[in-house]
Structure prediction request, 482 residues.
Amino acid sequence: MNQTIEELHELLKEKKITSQELVQESLKKSHEVQEKYNAFVTILDEAKATEITDNPLSGIPFGIKDNYSTKGILSTGSSNTLKDYIPIFTATAVEKLLSAGAIPVNKTVLDEFGMGGTGTSGHTGVVLNPWDSTRMCAGSSAGSACAVASGVYPYALGSDTGDSIRKPAAYCGIVGYKPTYGMISRYGVFPFASSLDHCGVLTRSVADAAIVVDNMKGIDPQDMTSWDSKDLHLYEHVKDDVKGLHCCYIKELCNIESYPNPTEELKSHLENFKNKLELCKELGIEVEEVSVDSALLEALPSVYVAISCAEATSNMSNLTGLIFGPRGEGNNVFEMMMNHRTHGFSPLIKRRFVIGSYILQKENQERYFKNAQRVRRLLVDTWKKLFETYDAVILPVGTGPAKHLDGDKDILSHDTEVLEEHLQIGNFGGFPSITLPDGFINNLPVALNITGNCYNDETVLKIAYALESKMNYKNQIAKEVE
Prediction:
């Protein structure tokens, strides 16, 4: 399915295709992609067509990340602790899409409960990258990214706690959009780190991302962090003129001189990024280099680990095997809980819970958790200060194309850690942030990211749309490297 939402809607309205034909095509493709890349937990073979209305999503298939609750449909969070869990209600974000006439055809694999950046820790196995099956999709929205990039449908839902929509989008050559915190209700989405968690979408074009989020957003009495976004009209303004806008990039992250032993991929990636800054100038966007304290930037990964692990430990304390999930064995409730959590969680999750529990111990809170929160505030304040002058910050995503599943083939350096992890700042501040493909290195996609101030989603999207229109990577379908 290589058309955009806009194109499919026109074809449906003109009756050149039917909704049922789209559903059948998507289901057929789902089984093919599952066999090759292992992108799905559940394929909904009974999915049916819906009526075609003026809503551009009506009659069009989509995918749901498996940490969104879906009534009567298996919702596992890609964890053995919920391998048989079928919710009795549907997440608000999904309900909104169903009301628009959209058709879910599968539930996609994620890193277990969203806690991972590789797409390798889900209980159903590793998700492979459709551009090169020896490489990862990144995570946690690995299955959604793989499916959209493979042409199963034009969009899929994701969630983003550190970069879990935007990094997989980058590795798979598609668009990943995380709107301002609370624009989309998180009710019914399995929590990871509540102060960082965002709902969002993976698409193959910026306009499609705007269409989907327009339909998902809105205040929800079930989510006290949601807010009234009815005055924001993303799709209506996505094609607005960008001339006269001001953007910046971070010197310490974008200059090759910052990296003592850069790989050839990194050199190419940063050079490619600088070329895209020239495109911004052609569009009438002013671009300036700014400097940020390196010590503050270098604290970023540790701050993320401390806060996210602490919140995850607290959020997932209800996964005992007593309320839901397969019950553990034991002579009393404590033994049953220990058995359930010991055998139900992957080693990665257990490590994160140990870290989180240690950080939250009374004697450690000041040194680790509260200090992490202080540094988070410094980082957010630094970006807020930038947004007083600039409409957006533009940065490259990661150090290049998707990493190999065999990590020994990639050189990972402490010097490049912040470049790999800087998207987390968008979660720290709740900022709207979008990743879009901006080229290829060794026939594999690479990407750039645009992040703006809270509630300035329209500006972020119109910058992304304008840049996308100057490049040739809109709506691309993955072509596996031979």
Q: What stands out?
A: The first helix runs from residue 5 to 13. The mean pLDDT is 97. The first strand starts at residue 40 and ends at 43.
